[in-house]
Amino acid sequence: MGIRSVAIQGERGSNSHMAALEMLGDVGILPCALSAQVLDAVVDGTVDAAVLPIENSLHGSVAEHYDLLLDAPVRIDAESQMRIRHNVIAAPGVALDEVKTVLSHPVALSQCRRWLAAHPQQSAAPFYDTAGSVKHLMAEHLLDVAAIAPALAAKEYGGEILVEGIEDHPENFTRFHLLRREDHSSYVTAPNKLSAAFVVEHRPGTLVAALQKLAAAGADLTKIESRPVPGKPWEYVFYVDFRFKGEELADAALAALRTECRVVKELGRYQSAKN
After folding, report:
1. Strand order in the sheet with 261-270
2. Most CB atoms closer than 10 Å: which of 124, 165, 190, 212?
3. Among candidates 121, 70, 114, 116, which has minimal Cα distance to 100?
């Protein structure tokens, strides 16, 4: 794809870092504290692309990332689906019974409730990032603290995995989007999935009419998400993903959508991560 550098939200060793490596191989990683900074790095050319999570099968959609996709001059070039595994990681030589505190991002903690409940001697504490919690305990030489994080974080910072796979549900997947600037050439071949955002008039039946237009055009709707329109209480932007066979169908579906909507933005065409 000609991509040599990628921005992610969070630290090296995070799930986003793992997703970037799975999608693109050995690329340079730019960690960013905020998701908005990730897209800024793409838009200003600091990096070639970004990898951001868009949805988790247990936690749901990442609302902020939908908002950023609407506003930023970027497009979705690919998606991936990655199984999320949470591991207890500590400094080398630390035994589990020596751990008093377990750090991690609040979402990760919420996905490991059963393990945490079974180990009341270790109190859970929220931290800004899963991989960042490993980075922190290693940098500070904490010997009574562990982290819940991806295996890559242990490798990245020299930690040791004490317990593997402590997540409550094995069917824990996250979808990631690969984002590039709109004015960059697309390397996507044979796309079969499209993401779009649209706004309907604020009157009865407009959403139903828009969805009927998509169905009549032959679009296979796989997701719909709504987000508030800033400054317009109780009005919404709708985000849809749909699969298609042939780009003529995708063009027809968008054209049909535009007949019912006052705003339509195509967010990207790409290959579905799950056929």
Report:
1. 220-229, 232-243, 193-200, 261-270
2. 124
3. 121
Indicate the CATH number for domain 193-270.
3.30.70.260
5-83+172-181 maps to CATH 3.40.190.10: yes
pLDDT digits (tens, 9 = 90+) for 189-211: 789 999 999 998 878 888 999 99
Q: Do domains 5-83+172-181 and 87-163 have the same CATH topology?
A: yes
The catalytic site residues sit at 174, 176
Query: What ranges in the chain are assigned the alpha helix state H?
Result: 15-24, 35-43, 63-71, 106-110, 113-118, 130-139, 151-157, 206-216, 247-258
